[in-house]
Amino acid sequence: MTKTDLELYDSMCSGDKSALESIYSKYEKLLYSYAYKMTSTHEVSEEIVQDVFTKLWQNKNPYDADKAKMSTWLITITRNSVIDLFRKKNSQCSWIQQQTATCLPKH
Predict the structure, then answer these.
(1) Are the C-beta atoms of 25 and 2 separated by less than 8 Å?
(2) 3-class SS of residue 47
(3) What span, in angstroms and rounded, lies between the C-alpha atoms of 95 and 35?
(4) Consecutive 10-residue runs of the chain (107 residues): their mean pLDDT?
């Protein structure tokens, strides 16, 4: 008998690594494809998927089956992770631009 997503999630929250592996196997390609559509970069997409499953394992975003399907919930976490990464990169670029501007001699 195959476990439902909720059963896998509950098992994972109890420390069952094989449940996490099952969720990963089921959704990794979907999340990677979604991240790739947003980033157009293989390396960044892989980083995003890793981040999503790390958050999942650490239970940073509790799942509520009454609010959404597991796939919808994971896509939302993926989208938010991409947005967070873009914000972080923009913030770093902005800081570098400010530092460069103050260090460059004015003509």
Answers:
(1) no
(2) helix
(3) 26
(4) 88 95 97 95 95 92 91 96 85 53 48
